[in-house]
Structure formats: structure tokens, C-alpha cells
Amino acid sequence: MRFASIFIVLFLSACSSNNQLEPEVKANTCDIQYTRYQATVTGYCQEVAASLPTNIPTIEKKIELRSITSIPEVFWYSSKMKYSLVKQDKKSPLAFVIAGTGASYSSSKMISLQKTLFQQGYHVISLSSPTFSNFIINLDSTTDFPGVLSQDAKNLYGIMQKVYQQVVNEDNLETTTFSLTGYSLGGAHAAYISKLDEDEKIFNFEKVVLINPPVSLYNSATILDSYLDLRESGRDAASAMLDDIFSAFAQSYASQKSSAFSHSSIYALFKDAELSEEELELLIGASFRMSSSDMLFALDVSYNLGGFIYKNQNISRFESVTNAMHRSHIVTFGQYFEKVVVPWQQESNPDLTREDLIEQLGLKNIESYLRHSDKISLVTNADDIILAEGEVAYLQDVFGSRAKVFERGGHCGNMDRKSFVEYMNNQFQGAK
Amino acid sequence: MYPFNLLLTRGITTFFLILLTACSSVPYSKGNTEEPRVKLPADYVEESILNNYADPWEGFNRRMYYFNAKADEYVLLPVVAGYKAVTPDILEIGISNFFSNLGEIPVFFNALLQAKPTVAAETFGRFAVNTTVGVFGLFDVATPIGLDEQNEDFGQTLGVWGIDAGPYLVLPLLGPSSLRDATGSAIDMLAFQAIIDELGMEGDEEIFLSLLSSIDTRASLPFRYYSSGSAFEYERLKILYMKYREIQIAR
Q: How many angstroms separate the CA of residue B8 from the nearest CA in chain A?
């Protein structure tokens, strides 16, 4: 048995964040030993959940951004860009929400934000992260690397205008004002989009909230890479550790009274398993590696980069991509950055240095704008795992009184918890 | 002259044999392809974090996966949507409870076959309470009084008896399975059929009941093909399925 155990865990955590299954159990808290890693994996379940609507009127939408015949065959099911609209009955303010690294417009954290904003009287348009496969495949570009924040912002801003036009035409959306938010990488995107909007003045955002953004994407990716560094710490050790985690879950599941999965039984699994800090890090690292391998594969295919799969290879819809998956799983983000992204970006811009590129993957490039823009607020956690030493202090310095730092929550672990949702309600009052 | 259903069976068998032999796992095509930029060690398959569960029938499985996704999109999901639209929520829950209650019978027998008397007793209790107080299973009154839901099937029984999962197998419409679990499902289905026969139903009622049961099963499953967006969804679902079965059998 190899690293596969993570899937059970991800499967379990996916269940635990599915609000629609068992809303009444959602209010339950857990009594797992708190660590910032635990909060990142299971959510900050020690705090009570916010009361959010169980069902919201979501309309699934698709938009064609690139001719369908140009979509690579292996992504045949991804031939249009997907997004969603949650619509109020009457003319209302509209909030755009941007997903975090590797996440889609309908990830559980996105749904939690949709509910929060809908409850505050907003229409909500949710967009996938530019690092999500469906986004990469549908982007009409041959040069843009997701994560280069100014390029992403330009692309997202264009797409926001197109989807807004589409929902006005197809869903008769009536809007008063515009706001913007995003979590994790989506938070950093929101910052850059807001800056772009100051010049373009299409939406004139009333309010922008950055949720748990990275300060430097390069630093954050390095931290997450290190949690699953197969070469350095030895694959066998990591493999054995995952086996242990899996058997701990299996044992705990065997001792539970009911065979059904509910929130409380999933918390019980984590409580019984008593995962160590290293084990939790490993789960987070493995989960990051999976989303980064999805992203890198989509990039390799869409741009014909030849990064870790063969260049000029057409993959048919029935062809096995298992080999490509194996390859992608041992490529760290760092390796791909050095070997593929830097040389590739230098092809179109010979003056670009590696250090310039790293700076473009972070917030410091637009620091003075962030420092002086009153409409932008920042919310994060003091123990967010993706922030390197000193970065929380940096954010507090830049945003001053517009920064809210919760003591606990890890990375985005508290987005559906009571105090976080209260904070959001104070920020988003456009409908009041 | 062959009877019609024998011909049909032969036709289906031939179809599956063709699919099974249609190999698809050619690793890389030649031609003007170029070596990847990131050089990987030769043992990258060994090094990969997900290198388990051989998939000798991958060619067949991937085609079946695709077929199931299309069947889901054009037939099952529209039917489920229609069903949900015309059925009041309370009735939907009742129907779902009704089929879960019938499902307690195979759970009971499999618990016995696995020598799990407490699971068998609890399941029997659930069935007795829900069939009587719960009006033929329309209401689940057993769970609130502490008789918990259990999950056993013949695939798990075979697993408990020490039989390996065998190769991964994607079944038409039913989706992820393995050679062992597919065999188990077939036996469970025969047993379920015997129960339906016991109820003394006419042909049309029986067809209606199995249709309703299938719709209810699909309606209660939140899974959507290709919704993860990942190019590796097939592989991930395979591992998820195999792991989930291991955790169930260990229980």
C-alpha cells in the first residue's frame, strides 16, 4: 500500500464540508487536540459553526472563451469555462468570489462564501482559480502562467466582464454595486484585480476583502512542497507514515457504532487517530501535490510545454494518463518552476530574471497600492501555515487597521465558523 | 434456434470481450514528440505516490467510465431531476427509506456469513422496527432509538473470507467495482430478486419497483462524472474505491 491513504482522508474531509448532507450535525463542534495543521485539514471545528442557509439558489453557468475545436481531446469534458451565479430575487449588489489554488468555483470553501454573501443580500458570481484545470484549458492564451498575479488579474478581469454580460443577458441580473473577494491564492488575485480596476474603472469595486492570501506564492509553495519532500526525507518513511494513518482511520471506523459517515463520526476518526504534526503535514503536502499535479498536467497539455509529458503528443479521450500522473506526482512545484516556468517565461521576455518572476508571484509588488486603498480589507489567521516567518507582521503593517488577524484557524480552516462569518457580515453591508 | 435471451447474452458477452481486449495503455506515441524538460528518475513509477492497484483491464474500464458518464448525462441524471421535480420531498425520503429497509435483508445475511452476531442482531432489529412501527420501512424510526445503520454486502463477505479484490473493474451504469465485488453484487442482486419474488409481485409492478429503486439509488449519490475537473479523476476514483472497500472490510 502506497500513498493512497490520503484519498480516504480527502474523501472524508470532502464529506465533512458538504453542508447539504446533514445541516443539523454541522453545528457540532469537535474535541480534537488543536493544532494549526489540524485546523487546516479538518477545519477549525473547535469553534461553533456559523448559521448559514442550507440551500441557496445556484445557477450553473458555462461560457465559451476559446473555440471548442481547439480544446485538447484529453480534456474533452472541459470544453467551456464553468462558473456559478447565486441570484437574489431583486436588484442587489453583486460580489465576485475567486477560488484558491487548484480549486473550482464550487469547492466547499466557495460554497461557504456564497452562503455568507447571499445571506447578506448579495448576488454572487463564483469563478474557479486560474490554477484550476478547467480554467487553464479554457484560457485563450499561450504565454500566461497561472500565479503570475498581474497576468491572472488581467485574465480574470476580462472574464468577469464577459460572465457579467452573460448573466445580465441570460438571467436578467440587476445589480447596484460591485464587490470582490477571494480566499488563499484567490485573495491575492482580488488584490491585483482591484488595482487593475482603479485604471479600467469597469466595476469600481465598493469593497474588496482578501482572505488568507499568500504574501509570496513562491514561499508558500516551498512550504507546502517541503511537507511532502520525497527525495529529502525518504519516500519509504513517508509511505509507511501514510499506511499508519490509513490503518488508524480503518481501526477507528471499525470501532464506530454506525457504518454511516456524518460530521461527528469524521471528527471521531480524527480524534481516535491522534495524528502527529508530521502526519498532518504529510496529508496537507500530499493534497497540495495532487492539486499541483492537476494544474501542471493541464498546463503541459494546453500550452504543449513538454514539462513532464512529451511535447507534441496528442492524448486521446480513452488513452491512459496514469503514467503522466505518476510523473506529475514526483515533480515538486519548485522543480517545475526552475526547469519549466522560468525558461518558458524568458522565451517571451528575455530580460526577465528568476528573481523578478518570484516577485511577480506575490503581493509586495503592489504594496503601496494596498497600503493606501481604503476599500481593501484583509483577514487571515496568526497561525496560517502558508505564511513564512514575518509575513503575518508584514500584512499587519501594510493593511494597518484594515487587517483582521484571528488567533487560530490555520489556513482557511475557519471560513464557515461563527466569528469569521460575523467579520464578513461586517465587511459586506452593501445591501443594507 | 436459440431463444432470444440467450442470443442477447451472447451478444453482450462478445461486446464486453471486445472491449476487454481493446488495449489502450500505450505509454507514449512516437513521431515528432520531444522528451520532457523535467528529467525524472527511471523508476518514477515506483517513486510515484499513487502506484498501487494494478489495472490490467484499463482499456475496457476507461471506455466503460466514459460510457457511464454519457449515460449519466443523457439518461440517469435527467430522469433523477424529473423524479425530484414531481416527487414531494417527504415522499422522496419515504421511498428512499423503503428501499434502505429492504436492503437490510442482504445486510443481515451477510453479517451472519461474516460471523458478526451483533451487526446481524442490530440489523434485524432495525428491519423489525422499521417494517412495523415505520410502516413497511417508509419511516426510519430505528436510527433515533439507537439502532444504527450497518453496511454489509457479499463483496465484503468474500473479502472477510480472505478473497482478494482482484482487478479493478468499471461496471456498466453501476461504476467502480472489482472482480470480487462485481461477483458479490451479482449474488446480492439475485438475493434481492428472490425477496421481490417473495412479495408476490406481478411483472409490471416488479419492473416499476426496480426502476424506482435505481432512480432512488442514483438520486442519493452526489457523485458527478468529471466534476473534479482533474485529468486524473479515473485514477483517483479507482484508488478511492479500493481504499473505501478495504476500510469497510476491516470493519
A: 27
Complex ipTM tops 0.90:
no
Q: Tell me the pLDDT tens digit for each residue of B220-250.
A: 888 889 988 999 999 989 988 998 999 899 8
Residue spans per domain, chain A: 58-217+367-427
Write the CB contacts of A213 (distance below 8 Å, at least 6 apart in sequence): A182, A184, A185, A187, A188, A190, A191, A363, A378, A380
Pairing, β A81-86 against β A123-127: antiparallel
Residue found by looking up cell 469537535 in the block: A30
* Fold topology of A58-217+367-427: Rossmann fold (3.40.50)
Measured between beta carbons, which residues in chain A are less than 8 angstroms from residue B44? 326-327, 330
Secondary structure element (H or E) that encloses residue A259, with its range: none
Widest pairwise Cα distance in chain A: 64
- A297's CB contacts (< 8 A; 6+ apart) are A133, A309, A321, A324, A325, A328, B231, B232
Task: Give the DSSP letter string of B75-94.
Answer: IIHHHHHHHHHHS-HHHHHH
pLDDT per position as a tens digit, A23-51: 444 446 888 899 999 999 999 999 999 99
Min Cα distance A112 → chain B (Å) is: 18
Which residues in chain A (341-400) have CB-CB distances under 8 A to chain B?
343
Quickly tell me which residue has 500530499 as its cell.
A286
Q: What is the pLDDT of residue B45?
A: 61
Lowest mean pLDDT among A95-99, A240-244, B226-230: A240-244
